[in-house]
Amino acid sequence: MDVLADVLRVSGARGSLGTRTAAGGRWGLWLDDFPGPALHAIANGNAWLAISGRAPTQLRAGDVVLLPPGTRHGLSSAPGVHMGTCDAAAAKVVRDRGDRVVFGTSPPETELITVHYEQDPEVRSPVLEVLGEPVSVSARCNSSLAGVISLLAHELSRPGIGTVAAVNSLTDLLLVQLIRSRLDARSGPHGASWLGATADPVVRDALEAIHAAPEKPWTTTSLAHHIAVSRATLARRFPHALGQPPGEYLAQWRMNLAALRLRDTDEPVEIVAKAVGYSSSHAFSRAFKRLRGSAPGEYRIAARLRCDSSRDGFTGSPFRTL
């Protein structure tokens, strides 16, 4: 069981919206806060990325950068260039046709792709902590990026049936590359985080077992036996890597799966409880309320309201209106 694949299956990119932009000469674009993460890929040319409180960074063809939700930032032809805004309505019309948003003082030299997407808010996982701060990957360090960016540009140039699904999948592929780059960059000693967990084969094997069969009645002892290590070894190394014992991680992942079933299906609580490894609905309800703050039935109602509100608020324009 690939833990990263499982987490992305449950919480990966949803409702991805991509915009192709072409710019030349002197240009700059300041991007407002947005409900979801922002992913920028440079298809041709180069651009400078400005993030509030940080020094500008140059991005070259093939580079990809991911910014967490709420990151105020801008892109420009050079540091210090005034960054204006873009007409949201006009940008949407151009995007829907599969054309590029063009701006600047001369013919385009730079083409970039901006993707905004959502991740399922009901899923909580230390894997996603890796993407909790700006992450960038250079094409010089990852030759596979160019192919993904090319596919993304092609899909956005011909929007049609299945485009959102295709862009979601390509966005997930870019997220995998970004996470891998973080793991490679931190190949030394780790603190308590998922990055550290992937570096420890004992913890990695335990995580794979949990994700492969979260409904099993795992204990630290049975999990240690399954991966052929002593209980003491697992009890020591799992919390060192992740900051929590195996049972706590298991309970949190089970609640992720349960939360999605409660929101997305009409299954009775008893069925949801059994599906995630609880022999009684009472034990499940008690655990769910402890970890999620409300009883399963209350959570189901609130999660569906949040889902409806999120769909209404995710308008699909990454640009601020003039």
In short:
This protein has 322 residues and is of the alpha+beta class. The chain is 46% helix and 17% strand.
Textual characterization of the structure:
The structure is a single chain. The protein has 322 residues and is of the alpha+beta class. It is 46% helix and 17% strand. Strand 4 and strand 5 (57-60) form a beta hairpin. The chain is globular. The protein folds into 2 domains: 3-185, Jelly Rolls, CATH 2.60.120.280; 194-307, Arc Repressor Mutant, subunit A, CATH 1.10.10. The termini are far apart. The chain has helices spanning 3-11, 88-97, 145-157, 163-185, 194-199, 201-212, 220-226, 231-242, 246-264, 269-275, 281-292, 296-313, and strands spanning 14-24, 28-31, 38-44, 46-51, 57-60, 64-67, 73-76, 101-104, 110-118, 135-137. Helix 7 crosses helix 8, helix 9 crosses helix 12 and helix 10 packs across helix 11. One of its GO terms (molecular function) is DNA-binding transcription factor activity. Pfam families: Cupin_6, HTH_18.
